[in-house]
User: Fold this.
Amino acid sequence: MVLIEKANQVLSAMDQEMTTRVTAELTKNGIEVILGDQITEAQSKSVKDSVKIKLGSGRTFDTDMVIVGPPSVEFSIAITIIIAFCYRHWCCP
Assistant:
C-alpha cells in the first residue's frame, strides 16, 4: 500500500510531532508514505485491469485501486479515530 500526500507531512493540520509519529506507524505497518508529491496521471485499459499512476516526480505505480479525494466529514471522522487509536497505543499502552 502506498500513501501519496501532496503536503510535506501527513495530516498537515496537525503538529509536526504527531504527524511524525503517524508516519512512523504507517511505515512500520508496511505502508509506503510519499510526501510532497501528487498523482498527475492515471490510466487503465478497462475496469478489470490495474491502474497505472504517474506522480509529478515521474515515479510510476501499477495498482488495483486508487482512492483520491479532498478531506470530508467522513474522512475527518476516520482520521480522528486513527489519531485516538495511535494516541492510546503510544501514550497509554
